[in-house]
Amino acid sequence: MKLSMISILIILLSLLSCNDSNPKQNQQLQASIQRGAIVYEDFCMQCHMPDGKGVEKAFPPLANSDYLMNKRKESIKAIKYGLTGEITVNGKKYKTAMAPLGLTNKEVADVMNYITNSWDNKNDKMITEDEVSKIQQ
């Protein structure tokens, strides 16, 4: 009986430790998220607020944002080049212009990883500097 309980415990621990299919990417993602938090604080928080909820009718929310999570390329492009025109976020229309922030591709990737993994957003597919570099205006 003891042997089977030990075997079950080992199997359970193995399954839990294998939860990350790519531990290296997970470490890279966590580092990117940490860098992105700094970028967010410096460039984004003034409009989108510390909690990512934005300002109703002025600045769209990033928290639990359908636009951010479903329009990956458009979101990267907005951060990289700015945004003009109307967008719909969580069923509400926003038409406030966002100026280009002058961020590097790495900073854009980092802040995207931060905001897509904060405030009820969950993104397992890391946004890379290479992916950002391929987004054209």
Summary keywords:
single chain; about 140 residues; mainly alpha; Cytochrome Bc1 Complex, Chain D, domain 2; two-stranded antiparallel sheet; about 5% strand; signal; Cytochrome c domain-containing protein
CATH architecture name: Orthogonal Bundle
What overall form do the CA principal axes indicate? globular
* Backbone CA Rg: 19 Å
Number of domains in the coordinates?
1
CATH homologous superfamily title:
Cytochrome c-like domain
Please tally the β strands and state the result: 2
Would you tell me the structural class of the helices and strands? mainly alpha
Domain Cytochrome c: 31-119
Protein name: Cytochrome c domain-containing protein
Organism: Aquaticitalea lipolytica
GO molecular function: electron transfer activity; heme binding; metal ion binding
What does this entry look like structurally?
Residues 31-119 form the Cytochrome c domain. This is Cytochrome c domain-containing protein. GO terms for molecular function: electron transfer activity; heme binding; metal ion binding. InterPro entries: Cyt_c-like_dom, Cyt_c-like_dom_sf, Cytochrome_c-type_DH. There is one protein chain. This protein has 137 residues and is mostly helical. It has one domain: Orthogonal Bundle (Cytochrome Bc1 Complex, Chain D, domain 2). The protein contains six helices and two strands. The protein has helices at residues 2-17, 23-48, 66-70, 72-81, 105-115, 129-133; strands spanning 87-89, 92-94. It has a two-stranded antiparallel ribbon. A hairpin with a 2-residue loop joins β1 (87-89) and β2 (92-94). α2 crosses α5 (105-115) and α4 crosses α5 (105-115). It is globular, with a radius of gyration of 19 Å. The termini are far apart. Residues 12-19 have low confidence and may be disordered.
